[in-house]
What does this fold into?
Amino acid sequence: MKLTTSVLAVGLLAAAGLAVGAGSASAHVVIDPSTAAPGTELVVLTFRVPNESAKANTVGLTITVPTKTPLATVRYKNVPGWTAMAVSTHLATPVKEGDFEVTDPVTSVSFTADSGTTIPPGGFADFELQVGPLPDVGSLTFPTDQKYDDGSVVKWADPTPAGGEEPEHPAPTLTVAGSGNAAGAVTVPSSDGTARTLAVVGIIVAALSLPVAAIGLSRRPRRALVAQRGAHYLLTVKGNQPALHSQLAGLPWADVPTGHFAGGKAHGRIEQRCLKALTVAAGINLPHAAQALRITRRTRRPRSRKWRTETVYAVTDLTAAQAQPEQLAEWIRGHWHIENQLHWVRDVTYDEDRSQIRTGHGPQVMASLRNLAISALRLAGHTNIAHANRHYANRPDRPITLLLTS
It folds into this structure.
């Protein structure tokens, strides 16, 4: 258990570089983060909107979503005191973006201030969109109209000239380049503390493929992570924890309404995913547990009528107010994608099947160490794990530097 706890501690240390604070406000409408990797499944974009008027108040905002390369997913986060509305357009010819077929993309999202709510002169406010997957197009621009209560409208839509000089009203732009985070990771902005903390811990927990037993399940380290460090957890519970799995399976799921449903085509299969969330006040054998989740995933081949059904249970310390069903569904799906990316590298690059360590907890510990190495390398931007292994093997100090600075 001491070794497993140390592995988790090193993993959290390796992820510490992600936990950075938000930058200061800008004089223009800007996007945070300003850069994301092509292929990122989902990224939360924070639009920081300053009021540059000396007398008028900002009362409305309309963000135009790129249409030349439509995004399969566009969601807005509700902002207290503002009414949000998304507008979609039906495409006569569907557009394929990655594994998704886009037929009715969102073309704009508007935020209108309720009575008594404004952005006063000298103030600013943040508005969030969750978008993805990101196409490999170099950059995405989101022209934005800022409306004032004196009837004026500022259009943040000017393109940046080739010379690089900043226009008067530059269009908010997301640069789509680089290798980004670990493959398949859900990206969250620094302005959302809960989501960022969960992403940091979630990437490590999912990428290490640590079962609940490996994290825990000595109770003291788990309580310390949540109570003392302010971290959050979202853990899938598998058959290797029969008591906890039985507890979750025995909850009255038939009486729980569906919290989130999604369907579509992915990886050559037709998928349906249904998530139910249930608040648990007591009785779950996991400290700080606030919600129990049941995810039912049905898949079939396009020409087949036979469905394959998989049911997964999970538990999180995040309350229903902190994490809505659609957010939990996206995070869990992102974690599954990370695990799938890991299996091929473990089997081929690390030749895991021929490992001679077969007794006691040795196989689980070695699997955790391999996953830690893969996750750290991907967070550092490496795409070829075999080449990266050779690079770090040549100098013993390099792995230590990697874990302390990733």
